[in-house]
UniProtKB/TrEMBL annotation:
Domain (Amidase) ranges: 24-444
GO function term, MF aspect, one: transferase activity
Protein name according to UniProt: Asp-tRNA(Asn)/Glu-tRNA(Gln) amidotransferase GatCAB subunit A
InterPro entries noted in UniProt: Amidase, Amidase_CS, Amidase_dom, AS_sf
Amino acid sequence: MQPYELTLAAAADAIRARKMSPVELVDSVLDRVEKVEPHLGAYVTVTAEEARRAAREAEHDVAAGRLHGPLHGIPMGLKDLIDIAGAATTASSRVRAGHRAEADSTVAARLTAAGAVLVGKTHTHEFAYGLTTPQTNNAWDRNRVAGGSSGGSAVAVAGGAATFALGTDTGGSIRVPSALNGVVGLKPTYGLVPRHGVTSLSWSLDHVGPITRTVEDAALVLTVLVDHDPRDPASVANSVTDYRPAAGTDLTGLRVGVPRNYYFDHVDPEVEAAVRRAIGHLEGLGVRLVEVEIPLTRYIQATQWGLMVPEATAYHERSLRTVPELYQTDVRILLEAGELMPAGDYLRAQRSRTLMRQAWARLLKEVDVIAAPTVPATAVKADQDILTWPDGTAEGVSDAYVRLSAPANITGVPSLSVPVGHDTAGLPIGMQLLGRPLGEPVLLRVGHAYEQTQPARRLAAV
C-alpha cells in the first residue's frame, strides 16, 4: 500500500510510531495529485512547494518529540471558499480574480496549528451555488458529475489526492459529493464549526465540515475544528473535546428511525436497496428500528430556496450590479432571481423553518438517529439535466440531489454520509445518518460501527 492510500488515522499512527515521515506521506500525495489531477480537475491550485516545506517542518518537529496531534503532517485540501492568508480565495469564479485573503479563516488556522499540511485549494461550484461542480469530474467515472458544491474536496479525497479535505454545506454540499464519490462527509450541527473567514452562500444555512475516507477520520478532523469563535455570530459552545468513537460495534439500546415517507420517495431502486440493507445491518448490531413520519415535507423545498436565494443575492448585491458578466450563467440567473423575491416570502420561509425545527425536535425525542439515503440517485452523466422517475415524474438533477439533504440544513441538525455500496454501474451509494443538535458523538458511533463491520473500502480507480 502506498502512503497516499492510507486513511488519516492509519497515517497518523505511522507518523507517531516513526514508521513513516510526513515528508514521505506528502510526497506520495503530491505524486498522486500530479498523476490524477489532469483527469479529475479537483484543484483550483496546488501548493506543492509550500506543502513540501511544511512537511519538512513537521518531520523535524516529530523527530524532536513535538507531535501536535493526529493531524500533524497530514495532507489536506481546502475548498476554495476558505481563506488562507496571502492566498487567493477564488470561489471558482472570475469575480474573484486578483483576490488575496488578508488572514486565515478560523478553520484554516486551527488545522495549521494542528500541523496539517495544505496541498491546495479545491474546486467548488461557483460561489458554492450549485450541486454538480462542473469543472471537476467524478472520481469513479470521469464522464459523470462530481456532485457539489464541494466536489473538488470529495474527489480529491476519493482519488487519493488528499488524505482529508474541508467542504461547506448549505443544502447538501458536503454530503452530496461525498455520497457520489464514495467517501465520508459530515455536516455538523449549525454553529458547531466556526465560519469566520469562509465565503458565504447563505449565512443561516451554511456549515463547514470534513470530508474523509472513514468515519474515524471525520471524528479526528472535527475534534480540531470545534471550539467557540465569537467572530461567527452563530458559533456555539460545546463541551465535547474528543469526537473519536470508542472501539466496539455493539449498538444495543439505540433507536434508529426509518422514514416511511419522503426519504424513500422517488429514489433509485438500487440506492434504496443498498440503504435498506445497511439499515438492516445496523439492526444486526443491536439497534432497534422505529418507523417515523418526517414532518412538514411539503414545505421543505420552498423553505430551502426561500431562505437561500435572498441571502445569497444579498451577499452578492454589489458585484452582481457592477460585474454581472463575470458570473457563470446558472449562478447569475439564481442571483438575479433573488432580487425579485418579496420580503414576505423570506419571512414566511423563516417562520416555516421555525416550525420544522420544532417538529424535528419532537421527532428526535422518539429516536436517537434517523437513517436514510443521502441522495436519491448515483452520479449522473455530466450532460444530464433531468432525472425521470418510474411514475413519469421529471425532476431537475440539482433539485433531486438537494432534496434529501436540505432538511438537515433547514433544521441545523447534524448529518453524516457514509458509503454503503455501489450500483451495478460501479458508482457509489451513500446513506445519511441524522441526529439531534450537538449529537455528533452518536452519529459517529453508529457510522463507525457500521464501517468496522464492512469490508475495507478502496480508493477510486482513477
